[in-house]
Amino acid sequence: MASNVNPTVRRRRLGQELRRLRELKGMTAEEVAERLLVSQSKISRLENGRRSISQRDVRDLCGVYEVEDQRIVDSLMQMAKDSRQQGWWHAFGDIPYSVYIGLETDAESLRVYEPQIITGLLQTRPYAEAIVRGGAPEATETENDKRVEVRLRRQSRVAAERDPLRLWVVLDEASLRRVVGSRQVMREQLEYLVEMSQQPHITVQVLPFDVGAHPGLSGQYSILEFSDAADSSVVYIEGVTSDLYLEKAHDVQKYTVMYEHLRAQALNVEQSRQLIEDIAKEYAREYAR
């Protein structure tokens, strides 16, 4: 394992290897759980990388799978040890979507559909502050400040000079016209969006109102892809109390096809940039009144 691979990805790769060993043994997760006197859900969480894996867990599973090569056992044990290290985001305390941050940090490309707001990786600080406060009115000022800082720290992936995250964003027109913070905040946000859209690794398209019904009406989602062939793509759907991660090939394919339809129905890059600029000018005129 490379030393610069973050703990979320370490857990994910280790889980994939443990699943492979189970399947080679011809056992179900339920059978393994019965042998180890644990719940089936624990085995599933270990395999999908959503739960920290201890070296004892790895030792017990290798015993069940009758792994005789000690080098394999030692390698998996080391992966388990490394997976318990903390990523930069842990310094901010309990972050609800920390698993997603870990995946985003290691992703090679990200495709996002946002129907309501400007995507977090392209938000200005004033816009992010207004979004966080409005989305969590019950949170303390300290909690909201922490969430804003995490969001802005995540943007280093698209600002990196070397190997930046390749980002493709489809925004519904509603996200441009929803006044978040103030009209001045919106003007600055849209001007920044235009600026960022000119970066070679960032593509922004707008899905205009007059498109009518489209495949994205069910809501926001993201597709993360990784450079390592061992890491399968992930569809991320954010929820209020829990998030959904889809990794099965047919699920990823379904959302990928949906995204291609959204891209085809959206304005092209030049038309999208022009619309964003026009709406920014509208906010500027309204603010000047």
Automatic annotation (TrEMBL):
Coiled coil: none annotated. CDD domains: HTH_XRE. Pfam families: DUF5753, HTH_31. SMART domains: HTH_XRE. Residues 18-72 form the HTH cro/C1-type domain. PROSITE patterns: HTH_CROC1 (PS50943). This is Helix-turn-helix transcriptional regulator.
